[in-house]
Amino acid sequence: MGHSPLLAGLKHNNRLEQVLAKSDVENAGYLDGIVLDLEANVIETTMANLFWVKSQQLFTPDLSLAGVSGVMREQVLDAMRSLGYSATVGQFPLEAVLDADEVFVTNCILGVAPVIKIREVEFVKGSLTKQIQEKLSLC
């Protein structure tokens, strides 16, 4: 995904990159795929924001140069603060996600959805994902 700092984080109608990425993923036989930026940093998936947990610490990509900061993403970050956790927002390679203890995606349709497999790496629905799901189901 190219950098577009003026549009980064915003929902807008110029979604050609996401449409093309989603088409590539579906043509390869997958439901969703992780989108990387020009420097191979994780940005999002083709249809959702991405979060992962390592050693009870939550991580999510920085979306200041590319990607969409969805409503559910902000709700997750707020829920984390209310649960007493902090989230690390930054630039991360795909390997950081593949090394996670748990992974989940968010959007307004899915809510908070655990990821069970990326490539050949399997994940469990972890305790932090469950806490966030429970917290947001009360909202």
TrEMBL record:
One of its GO terms (cellular component) is cytosol. It comes from the Bacteria. Pfam families: Aminotran_4. The keyword Lyase applies. Pathway: Cofactor biosynthesis; tetrahydrofolate biosynthesis; 4-aminobenzoate from chorismate: step 2/2. Its EC number is 4.1.3.38. It catalyses: 4-amino-4-deoxychorismate = 4-aminobenzoate + pyruvate + H(+). Transmembrane segments: none annotated. Keywords: Folate biosynthesis, Lyase, Pyridoxal phosphate. Gene3D superfamilies: D-amino Acid Aminotransferase, subunit A, domain 2. GO terms for biological process: 4-aminobenzoate biosynthetic process; folic acid biosynthetic process. Its cofactor is pyridoxal 5'-phosphate. The keyword Lyase applies. GO terms for molecular function: 4-amino-4-deoxychorismate lyase activity. Involved in the biosynthesis of p-aminobenzoate (PABA), a precursor of tetrahydrofolate. Converts 4-amino-4-deoxychorismate into 4-aminobenzoate (PABA) and pyruvate. PANTHER family: AMINO-ACID AMINOTRANSFERASE (PTHR42743), AMINODEOXYCHORISMATE LYASE (PTHR42743:SF2). Belongs to the class-IV pyridoxal-phosphate-dependent aminotransferase family. This is Aminodeoxychorismate lyase.
